[in-house]
Amino acid sequence: MNYAFTPARAPTVAIxxxxxxFPVHRIYCVGRNYAAHAREMGAxxxxxxxxxxxxxxxxxxxxxxAIPYPPATENFHHEIELVVGLGEGGAAIDEAKALDCVFxxxxxxxxxxxxxxxxxxxxxxxxxxxxxxDRSAPIAPLHRVQEVGHPAAGAIWLxxxxxxxxxxxxxxxxxxxxxxxxxxxxxxxxxxxxxxxxGTPAGVGPLVAGDEVTGGIEGLSEIAVVIx
Length: 228
Ligand code: MN
Description:
Elements: E1 12-15, E2 18-23, E3 27-30, H1 35-40, E4 52-55, E5 60-62, E6 66-67, E7 76-78, E8 80-86, H2 95-98, E9 102-109, E10 112-113, H3 114-123, H4 128-131, E11 137-139, E12 143-144, H5 145-148, E13 155-160, E14 163-169, H6 177-184, E15 195-197, E16 205-206, E17 212-217, E18 223-227
Parallel strand pairs: 3-15, 5-11, 6-18
Antiparallel strand pairs: 1-2, 3-4, 7-10, 7-16, 8-9, 8-15, 9-12, 13-14, 13-17, 17-18
The chain binds manganese (II) ion.
């Protein structure tokens, strides 16, 4: 292949206990998938169909990284989330077969420029500036399904400088992983390497430079990043 200049390297996520890397194709995110968080964002958590936004694949950041406080915001928020990595794709996937597409699970943080997201929401504009910025998707190593199965319940938490800010249970997802894959695959053709951030529990809040952010989900590797 004769490229005009060297293409960027494929973004990757680590796999727990494996030297191989998970090559990222796309990043999809579910909005408002825990009732208490939907309420804190001023929405009514009806079981309306899930809605999605995206981040660029190269927004991924490895756990253990230092993340510079991003530009253009004065309200930079953390959202701890269960992340699903797909090993197979497809279109219009049956809910009953959806989990067969899952490669593994990990802990991620949907970093958000909340001021820009809310301004966009108010004006009916796209969320990209609030959600899809550089280094907005730190992810801990993925655990293969063969190792952890399909976690359907268990504590999810995030702490800032050791103080717990978010606490929930992934069993409280309004739309579970199989349902999310089934609905998402009717809007986009899913591919191996797709990541899905499944939504955050209540307790989102601001980060400042110097904050040490840690988070976890029962049974999965913890995530740790520092804001600089
Ligand atoms: Mn989120």
